[in-house]
Amino acid sequence: MKMRNIFTKKGISPVIATVLLIVVAIGLFIAIFFWIRGMQQEAILKFNSDIKQSCLNVNFDATYQGGTIQIQNTGSIPIWKADVYLRQGGSLTNKGFIAGPIMPGTSASQTGIACGGSLEITPILLGNSQKTGAEAEYKCQEKTKTISC
């Protein structure tokens, strides 16, 4: 019986190995690039600065009575509209929105909103997309108010 010499076996050529490593590296780079790009939020501007700064100046009061919700803009920034959600137990249901714009010092209301828990009102500002220049909405989540009904 002959013993085979394990050192005489051939593997892939160095050229093919190098090409495979380059292809894998490029593929990883492209995947990471699109993953990071997808995580970045589009910049929306209002008054030539980041709209998040404008959200800091949003203030409003909200009341609910007899199926009507009313919000009063007490801040210095116009509110484009406000989303209304009903929270019952652990679930959150979209009940529509209060149309605007609601200028500082003015109010707006929406009728026909049935409530059986609490309402969450989230103001929405209108700005311009830095990328396209088109109008874009931005929800000021940190300014959401909850009212009992």
Describe this structure in words.
The chain has 149 residues and is α+β, with helices and mostly antiparallel strands. The protein has two domains: 6-39, no CATH class; 44-148, Immunoglobulin-like (Sandwich), CATH 2.60.40. The chain is 21% helix and 43% strand. The protein contains two helices and ten strands; from the N terminus they run H-E-E-H-E-E-E-E-E-E-E-E. The chain has helices at residues 14-39, 51-55; strands at 44-46, 49-50, 60-65, 68-73, 79-88, 91-102, 107-110, 118-129, 135-139, 145-148. Strand 8 and strand 9 (135-139) form a beta hairpin. The termini are far apart.
Strand and helix layout:
Layout: H1 14-39, E1 44-46, E2 49-50, H2 51-55, E3 60-65, E4 68-73, E5 79-88, E6 91-102, E7 107-110, E8 118-129, E9 135-139, E10 145-148
Antiparallel strand pairs: 1-2, 1-8, 3-4, 4-7, 5-6, 5-8, 8-9, 8-10
CATH class of the largest domain: Mainly Beta
Number of domains: 2
Quaternary state, please? single chain
Structural class: alpha+beta
Strand content: 35-45%
Mean pLDDT: 83
Describe the sheet with the most strands. Answer: 7 strands, antiparallel
- Tell me the overall shape: elongated
Low-confidence stretches: none
End-to-end separation = 92 Å
Radius of gyration: 28 Å
